[in-house]
Amino acid sequence: PEQILGRYPHQLSGGQQQRVMIAIALAGDPAVLIADEPTTALDVTIQATILDLLRDLQASRGTAIVFITHDMGVVAEIADRVAVMYKGDLVEIAPVYDLFANPQHPYTQGLLNCRPRPQQQLRRLPTVSDFMEVGSGTEAGKIVAKVRTEAEKAELLAEVSPHEIEQHRQTLVQQTPLLRVQNLTKAFPMRAGLFGKREEFRAVDAVSFEVYPGETLGLVGESGCGKSTLSRCLLRLIDPTSGLIEFDKQSVLDLDAEAMRRLRREMQIVFQNPYGSLDARQTIGAAIIEPMQIHGLGGTKAERQARAIHLLERVGLDASALRRMPHEFSGGQRQRICIARTLACEPKFIICDESVSALDVSVQAQVLNLLKDLQKDFKLTYIFISHDLSVVKFISDRIMVMNQGRVEEIGPAEEIYNTPKKPYTQKLIAAIPDAQLDDIRQRQRATADIHS
């Protein structure tokens, strides 16, 4: 604690900053603590630490906590009771076990079903709209449960068989890799004090892997493990210190500026923050058409506009969005627009850098389904970076685990999740919030024992 007191905010990690904010909030010894999405941007191990800290503080101080989150797994881990809001209305409130075991409102049913479940491999994630609709007749204007046949319900929750997963994987690895990385290193110079010895910090340290055409490689690890630095090196947004990057049989590091500009049309990235990814002074149409103009795609002005409309429709938005500004859209809609803008370049390869982390669980399911559909339709290859291992397992063919700049483990998604070989991977898997009913009941009993 004494060391932290003398530091500035930029010198602390995300988890440390969040704990400082909790300390500030507790300084006045409050009776009620409102925690507004305190773990949303944190990786699973730091998230688990924050949840443990809040539980310990609650037990020792008797503080009531209002915990706001869109992560139903976190709700199962920490809540005693749950209140569900939809469009400003409180639609359901119940003890956490009762809500997870028997949700009453269609919106709650949708929320619980559209979160990725690591124990299953669904073909598609259900969305909230699959479970509710606006009623008619005597129920006009009300939200009612969508009536489905048993066959429709089964199709909604259809799983991919292990045989299909293995067959798809074998088809992928028989191809020539689209991306090949060997011994990639990115070191940043650092110095201890003004006259201290110059050293270096290796954010990426001798990383090697391959990505095959049509594959999704999931990239996971704790904050600061080098995921985002690696992604920026792959696109040469920053230059690596050493190593080899080969894309479509071209050595990326040997290309001059003009050749690299042409290659970037085929190598694109979707960033985490949809609010910062769009120019606030530029219409959505201009944002999507601009990449076509830069790379000489799309033909005439009318043809480019027609393609922009087609891309917007492909990501679930209509043509009226062309003339609107970014502030007129929600976070999920902005992320769809960013994806449409990326597709305007006709890329082969897209890095999704925490691109669903800022979205609530219902919008997240829509975007993940969209990414899968687009991959199939446009023959795309992804590197999908996330701190949410449940999301990574749903969308990935293989998963690569990074730790302190190095590759800790890489393998098929099912294998990494079910039988992780390295202790570090096992720790990440164990830290995933679990919404199993037996675990919720066990936690409730433990909490009751403490209070008694």
From TrEMBL:
Has UniProt tagged this entry with the keyword Thylakoid? no
Which residues are the signal sequence here? none
Molecular-function GO term, any one = ATP hydrolysis activity
InterPro entries in the record: AAA+_ATPase, ABC_transp_ATP-bind, ABC_transporter-like_ATP-bd, ABC_transporter-like_CS, Oligopep_ABC_C, P-loop_NTPase
GO biological-process terms attached to the record: peptide transport; transmembrane transport
| Pfam families assigned | ABC_tran, oligo_HPY
Superkingdom, taxonomy of origin: Bacteria
Domain ABC transporter: where? Answer: 179-429
Listed A to Z, the keywords are: ATP-binding, Nucleotide-binding, Transport
Listed NCBIfam families: PRK11308.1
Please give the name of this protein. ABC transporter ATP-binding protein
Species = Adonisia turfae CCMR0081
